[in-house]
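Repro:
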Amino acid sequence: MANPGLSIVLRILDNENRLSERADQKSISMLSIIGVFMVFFIVYYRVIPTNALTVILIVLYFICALTAIINLIMAIRPRIRKQPGESGIATARDPAFFTGISEFPSINAYKDSLEKTLQDDSSVMDVYIRQIYSVARINREKYKFVQRGVVMAIVTLIIELVIITYLFTYYMGEGATKMPPI
């Protein structure tokens, strides 16, 4: 008789894996958006007048953009640290988790370990519970970086809009004869 709790555990694991994929998709999308807006900024960069306000805004822009990019990249590949008293995220040679599978010396050793694990329902549950815990920790880190990256991307875009607005008002005040070619 199959363990009814196993289907719930597998559903939780699937949900955690989907959350991980969503974090990666969000990060990649935000990196693309920042890239597109940076291209617009580079086009207008040559017509930005040099004064104290524009220098401050440009420095802030690049700091925020760089911070957003770093956070979004860290969301795609977060660093997970061991907690005190923890031997590791997954046990060595865990036959159902990617880090353990790759440590088997041969396919036969992997097959034997997987068959042995599948014979005992409690060991199967333990394997998947460790996976859920590991993926949940990874997701916590991913979403922390996604949140920071999104906030910094928004600040970056706001600064860029302020610069563009400043350019518009600056050149409208100078007159149409001073309007730079775009």
